[in-house]
Specification:
mainly beta; binds zinc ion; single chain; 10 strands; elongated; 2 domains; 5-stranded antiparallel sheet; 3-stranded antiparallel sheet; SH3 type barrels
Length: 112
Amino acid sequence: MTKVHVKVDDNVYVLSGKDAGKTGKVLAVNPKTGRVIVEGIAMSTVHKRPRSASDPGGIIRIESAVDASNLMVVCDKCKRPSKLEMRFDAKGEKARHCKACGAKVSVVGREN
Ligand SMILES: [Zn+2]
C-alpha cells in the first residue's frame, strides 16, 4: 500500500500531465493504488447511453484519476505548492506543516 501525502479537501498543484500548473481540490483518494481524483483536473469526455429518466446519458465530462506523486499540496498561508513535514505542534498534536513557511496545514486525525 502506498502512503499518499494528499487528503480529501486539500488544494493541490499538478506537476505533470496536460493539466500541469493547474490547481484543484482533492475529491477522492485511493490509498491502495495511490491514485487521486482532483476537481477539474484530467478531465475526460465520456459518451453515455441513456439508462433511465434520471440518467439521460449524453456526453459528460468526468475527472480521471492522477497519480499522487504528480501532486503537491498548496499551503493555505503562503499560497505556494510546498512540501509538508510531520511535526508535533505546541499542543502536542501531530500535524502536517508547510516546509516553506511553517504554517500548520492540518492535524493528523483518526480519519486518515
Ligand atoms: Zn506555507
